[in-house]
Amino acid sequence: DVKVTQSSRYLVKRTGEKVFLECVQDMDHENMFWYRQDPGLGLRLIYFSYDVKMKEKGDIPEGYSVSREKKERFSLILESASTNQTSMYLCASNQISGNTIYFGEGSWLTVV
Amino acid sequence: QKEVEQDPGPLSVPEGAIVSLNCTYSNSAFQYFMWYRQYSRKGPELLMYTYSSGNKEDGRFTAQVDKSSKYISLFIRDSQPSDSATYLCAMIANSGGSNYKLTFGKGTLLTVNP
Fold this sequence. Notes:
The complex is a heterodimer.
Chain A: E1 4-6, E2 10-13, E3 19-25, E4 31-38, E5 42-51, E6 54-57, E7 65-70, E8 73-78, E9 87-94, E10 102-103, E11 107-111
Parallel strand pairs in A: 2-11
Antiparallel strand pairs in A: 1-3, 3-8, 4-5, 4-9, 5-6, 7-8, 9-10, 9-11
Chain B: E1 4-6, E2 11-14, E3 19-25, E4 30-38, E5 45-50, E6 54-58, E7 61-66, E8 71-76, E9 85-93, E10 102-104, E11 108-113
Parallel strand pairs in B: 2-11
Antiparallel strand pairs in B: 1-3, 3-8, 4-5, 4-9, 6-7, 7-8, 9-10, 9-11
């Protein structure tokens, strides 16, 4: 079974803090993704990576950055957290030729 | 017009009912279609995947695709309380190199009452 692990399930951070969300997949997938999910807005793609050190902006990259130093690990960084970044963050991965993706359990971030 | 439209519900049915969940789309390039199930405070899990028009059955679940009408459906037979979740449709174009571009519906919240 595909396993996408998000190490932090629930976080509470203060405005202005730097936040790291970590994701690890164990299926040797080339592609990895970060989404956020908000009520009424659905899933929105923040960033994706198709190889180590490679990244592309998704639909809502503002306020976020990413890091992919190893194939299995993809990190989402909030340089200076703001209250409007309170959300559920979902990591996902797939093969480069894959037509579907596999999600982690999600990280609930509250910024106060 | 949004690329993918999905009625958000909520949809509430009695146990044992047949459930029909639907999405419409506007992009004729979409070739692959998926349904995800998402339980409360969990990540989406892949439920069904299909790439051709017609029906695909898996136990109590049937995915139906009508490319001519740009319409996909998920049917759940003999619905159970454990089917209570949000169901997301997703689709992707076969445009080589853009395989990251999965487009999601906003999800339909389903409650099956015992």
